[in-house]
Amino acid sequence: MSFSNEVRNEVARYMPDKPCCRKSELAALLLFAGQVDKTADGQLLKITVENAATARKIYQYVKELSPWPATVESEQKNRFRKSRAYEVVIEPQEADKAVLEEMGLFYPTARRHVPWNLLGKACCRRSFIRGLFLTRGFINRPEGNYHLELVLSDTRLAVEVQKLLQKMGLKAGRIERKNHLVVYLKDSEKIADFLRLIGASKALLDFENARILKSMRNTVNRQVNCETANLVKTIDASVRQVELMDKLIKSQRWEMLSPQLKELALARLKYPDSTLKELGEMLNPPLSKSGAAYRMRKLEQTAEELLDQN
């Protein structure tokens, strides 16, 4: 099961206590998954979702919050993948036009807008966003790239959803993909805030655990890469210094080195794998890492000058 479906299953079972919050969530479910169809007998409002728990939630909300009779149907969308779609069908009457308009559907033409009149309270805005995710939301597994998106088909709705998320402290981006507009979050902190906002507690815990593991893994990798790079630099410098000392010995200019430089050169020849800090501790008197580095630079400079005299 995808992480998106895990989150949907969890939040579909989350039932707000307040009637105003339930109404706001139903408004989102109708707005983003509903379609008004004309029939010979009048009008049908069909809400199509791919999650059985979401369909049950819609049916329960409709029975509780509206005067409309409702039925639930299912159909197999893809025979090989065995995916199913669930359709809640309700029959609003002409007298119910005001109810649909209040929920963001301009009956019967189904022109859509965010029903700001229902979203005066923060709890209602959270419920509305929960319904939005249930119908239009997708989220990557946190082990991969951080990405949450809400796929919309209307520019006006996309702008209003961005505005709503901004009110909740979530600054979302917007891009156009084929025939859809996508409102998205890529920052892991904001995605965690989004999951917390819609009440996906278990998904949030899984997300945070994966995020911590990924952060630790990245930190370890950076440390290993840094240590590897430092080791390579140390080895390269040691090889260069040993070759330089060998050339100086063969050129018979070795005796022209000062006693301090000669002591460091002998230490390097004897211990080619040692770091500058370790070489400094072998000298008499011992030198710090910075002192050994300074003397090594002086040794290399002097050796090159002596070799250039040939």
Task: Describe what is shown at a glance.
It is built from eleven helices and ten strands. With 310 residues, the protein is α+β, with helices and mostly antiparallel strands.
Helix and strand arrangement:
Layout: H1 3-12, H2 19-33, E1 34-39, E2 42-49, H3 52-65, E3 70-78, E4 83-90, H4 97-102, E5 105-106, E6 111-112, H5 122-136, E7 137-139, E8 148-152, H6 155-167, E9 173-177, E10 180-185, H7 188-197, H8 201-250, H9 259-270, H10 276-282, H11 289-308
Antiparallel strand pairs: 1-2, 2-4, 3-4, 5-6, 7-8, 8-10, 9-10
Structure explained in plain terms:
By secondary structure, the chain is an alpha+beta fold. It has two domains: 3-199, Roll (Endonuclease I-creI); 228-308, no CATH class. The chain contains eleven helices and ten strands. The chain has helices spanning 3-12, 19-33, 52-65, 97-102, 122-136, 155-167, 188-197, 201-250, 259-270, 276-282, 289-308, and strands at 34-39, 42-49, 70-78, 83-90, 105-106, 111-112, 137-139, 148-152, 173-177, 180-185. The strands form three sheets. A four-stranded antiparallel β-sheet has the order 1-2-4-3. A hairpin with an 8-residue loop joins strand 7 (137-139) and strand 8 (148-152). Helix 7 (188-197) packs antiparallel against helix 8. The N and C termini lie far apart (75 Å). 30% of the residues are buried. The mean pLDDT is 86.
Short descriptors:
single chain, about 300 residues, alpha+beta, Endonuclease I-creI, 2 domains, four-stranded antiparallel beta sheet, 10 strands, about 55% helix
